Fold this protein.
Amino acid sequence: MVINVAFKVRGIGLSSFFGAMLAVSATAQIRVEDPKKTAERSVEGRVNSRIDQGINKGLDKVEEGIGNIFKKKNKGEKDQKTKGKTTKDNDEQQQEDSNDAQVNETSSSKASSTKANSQGGAAAAKDEPKSMKAYSKFDFVPGEKIVATEDFSQDAVGDFPAKWNTNASGEVVTMEGAKFLQFAKSGVYYPEFVKELPENFTMEFDMLASEDLSVNMSGLKVFFPEFKERKLTFDQNFNSSAQAGIDIHPTADGESSTSSVWVFDKNSEKVVENTNRLAWKTNVANRVSIWKQKTRLRIYVNETKIWDLPKAFDSSLKYSMLFATSIFEGTVYLANLRVAVGAPDTRSKLITEGKFSTTGILFDVNSDKIKPESYGVLKELGTVLKENATVKVRIIGHTDADGEDAKNLDLSKRRAASVKNALQTEFGIEAARMETDGKGESQPVAPNTTAEGKANNRRVEFVKL
């Protein structure tokens, strides 16, 4: 019996026995020199019978494995994908709802509610968004200045994003009210407006995976190659130039989800390679946060840090980024990309300079409710205030220029009050040490004519009193 098994080159280890591209060929032959002898005929018959039984059992298992891979999606899943595309009216409503939203304020909570309700209470309980306490170990702090954002608001549903490039295909779709880029099964993709990345930067995006995403081959790969290597001919499987890369590979049940990581140095030697289990929330958008500080690379999915590599980058090289897919079955989606630069130094800016401003405290759309992923920034502020017990601060909320002036002013005041309350209740900072105010859209730090400018204007400021 000859068994040929295909496996992927990069991203995850060997495919399962009954994975993609499985080919089974089996041959068995008994040659009897003298068929006239009854005893030998009897032996021949019994041996052939045993071989046939073994072959049949093997083929039965192969058929069963292939059947599991190619399980047809039920009508509910097809209907759910149909919901992914909507009309112009929904696009216009999304624009209205995004008024003064943080760049990465996705409607994942809406997606969770809608989809979980359609699948019963158990799913809803499993994927219910966690409270801020669940993020108590989340130490991610976004960069100081946002240099690139992408919410696909300028792109029509069904089109490939105008500011991106690819050697494959893809299209903008609407998933539960938010625009996502749906990647093709195989290809390389990158936003042309993200060029050479600085020494210190953060990158964040929302990711969705279809329920039929196969465990074979890859999920969504994120590469950080040298800037000169960031091109459409980049070989995602065999390129060994200096790079760091990850493969985020969810599964339908969430329990078999994995993440792989690899690093090549400038001599094309692979110096890091590993795969671990991934805590993935099914049926909702998951937030991926990436933090580069000089040579160090930290990667988070939701509140969990999944990788922390101290020597992932060569400080003498200039890096960029790209996405890639090599998917056997299913689809992955991306939304709300945000790239920021700078290494936040909260202590120095607040205590020494007397002022600290951050775009990393995030709120629900048109709301003063703080998103749990803001924990890292709040924790840093809480630590600084605890270590400097005599310092008092004024917390000031700011918005962009979208919407009515009066509503933005009120929203900025309420958001500042929410931040004060969080610092008091979560980190024990005395309320008497904090006062709040809001300036609405009246004090922009960047023009409100671009997405990046608006994102930088939506901020919370801390002024030492």
